[in-house]
Amino acid sequence: MKIAISAQGQDMNSELDPRFGRTSGFIIYDTQTRESSFLANTQNMQAMQGAGIQTAQNVAQAGAEAVITGHVGPKAFAALQSGGIAIYLCQEPTVQDALKAFVDNRLSPTDSADKPGHW
Predict the structure, then answer these.
(1) Is residue 14 within 8 Å of residue 30, measured between CB atoms?
(2) Cβ distance 101 to 107 under 8 Å?
(3) How many whole angstroms separate alpha carbon 112 and alpha carbon 110?
(4) What is the pLDDT of residue 43?
(5) Which of 26, 37, 69, 104 is 20 to 30 A from 8 via CA?
(6) H or E element: which one contains 77?
């Protein structure tokens, strides 16, 4: 399974980014191979609108089946849900800590957005 984790940097020790649509990027972690890569999200960081939807499309194209992030807005939530991508909200300090929480089954998929659009 590939997991997209919103990150403020480009490696597993980076801080977890609380934003989904306007994050600087994602660590894409493959639970089978245990390999990770960075997916930049620079094109959506300053978007006037639609950042969550476009980011959801990019995450889906990367093959992610789950997303771990701090918060998610309603449009991003709907786009991820329609793509069959599970959404996990997390407040861990780093990408590595968020991944560990996921692997240890300490995260549950969310069933709704937790922020209004464009926060």
Answers:
(1) no
(2) yes
(3) 6
(4) 75
(5) 104
(6) helix 74-82
